[in-house]
Amino acid sequence: MASGSPLPLQAEPPAPPGPAARRPLTIDDFDIGRPLGKGRFGSVYLARLKDSHFIVALKVIFKSQVEKEGMEHQLRREVEIQAHLQHPNILRLYNYFHDARRVYLILEYAPRGELYKELLRSHTLDEQRTATIMEELADALAYCHAQKVIHRDIKPENLLLGFRGEVKIGDFGWSVHTQSLRRKTMCGTVDYVPPEMIHRNTYDEKVDLWCLGVLCYELLVGSPPFESTSHNETYRRILQVDVQFPRSMPEGARDLIARLLRFQPEERLPLSQILAHPWVKARSRRLLPPCAQWEMLIKMDALSARVFGSVLTVHRAGAMREIVLAPTLRSHFQLSLGFRVAPPPGAPLCSLHLDSQVHDQTLAHASAQ
Fold first, then answer.
1. How far from 335 is each of 64, 126, 212, 229, 262, CA to CA, in Å?
2. Which of 283, 305, 329 is the last residue of a domain?
3. Exposed, middle or buried, 194 (CB in 10 Å: 0-12/13-18/19+)?
4. Span 242-252, average pLDDT
5. What CATH number is attached to the domain comprising 269?
6. Whole-model pTM?
7. Residue 80 placed within a domain
8. Does 5 score more than 60 pLDDT?
9. Which GO terms describe its biological process (predicted)?
10. Are 183 and 324 contained in the same domain?
């Protein structure tokens, strides 16, 4: 998918290569492991496909709870958006299925859990870790905005950690796909709400810039900048942009946060300038997985690729190249190349397509969790 083109939510994705679609998945196709977390409408479990031993996170949502809260439309929107996003710092949604009582979302497994829990344990993060997260999220949000998606709820609770500690946006419950990138709905989390939402003004993707500023402050200080004893007091401080920087705040981080937490949305630092900010460039230690770099080449140059055991075979213009992959990279490639999402518009169920030539789909580190 080209980064500048809008997200094709209303058009059926191209048919996957390889064999015809298998029968629809059911819960009996999975071995269910330990619980990974609990949400508003259900729980998330470590799971493994029985036929391939492929490790995933299985989110189980109770239909009765969704219907009780009138959230059917929001759930469908969340699935449609996340299923079409492919970025190293966005949790993949591979597919979904359902039965009479539940909806099941097949998600990428993030072995290191939630950023929120890491923050609870350590209270604050150091400059290097925080700057790395800022770079990862700025890049991921730039991709989302290019696909006409506004996230609207960036916060530690919605961020997961991959095998190498990389951040992955893992919850798109409040996200929206809109051609105009302009909305009016009040949503998100109290401490992270931008001034234009409180005023009920029309807003655009720049609400995500405000959230990045709040997040950067919370990671370095241990609490959000506008946290107060009541919602009304929090809103008052947000509208006044009443930010109090502790003396321990690094000057570079203070500059970045101050340039993101601007009352006027058009004055907020653009995502491209976050990536180029001196503090981010000097402190970030972002490691883009080599497989993610190859995925970009595959998408841009229409390469064909297959994984046979531990060997990645890439074909381009009649030439062939073979690369031996380390176990974790092999798993990531198989995960990326072996699964295809194909949800027809309005369909209640879509099946999971597995390339018959993809084998040995095991995450070595998963068994140690």
1. 31, 32, 29, 45, 40
2. 283
3. buried
4. 96
5. 1.10.510.10
6. 0.74
7. yes
8. no
9. cell division
10. no
Listed in order, strand segments (DSSP E) in the chain are 30-38, 42-49, 55-62, 93-98, 102-107, 149-150, 159-161, 167-169, 176-177, 304-308, 311-316, 319-324, 339-340, 353-354
**How many separate domains does the chain show?**
2
| Domain identity same for 250 and 352 | no
**Distances from the Cα of 103 to the Cα of 38, 39, 41, 56, 60, angstroms:** 15, 13, 10, 16, 6
Active-site position among 51, 139, 153, 360: 153
Domain that holds residue 132: 115-283
Whether residue 175 has pLDDT greater than 80: yes
pLDDT at 299 over 80: no
Annotated binding-site members: 40, 59, 63, 108-110, 157-158, 171
- Flag whether 200 is in a domain: yes
258 & 152 share domain: yes
Is the pLDDT at 224 greater than 60? The verdict is yes
Phi (first) and psi of residue 110, to 5 degrees: -105, 100
Summarize the annotated binding site for ATP as residue ranges.
Answer: 40, 59, 63, 108-110, 157-158, 171
Higher pLDDT, 308 or 97: 97
**Amino acid making up residue 227:** E
Lookup: tokens for 149: 């998606």
Q: 153 an active-site residue?
A: yes
Predicted confidence band of residue 6 (pLDDT cuts 50, 70, 90): very low
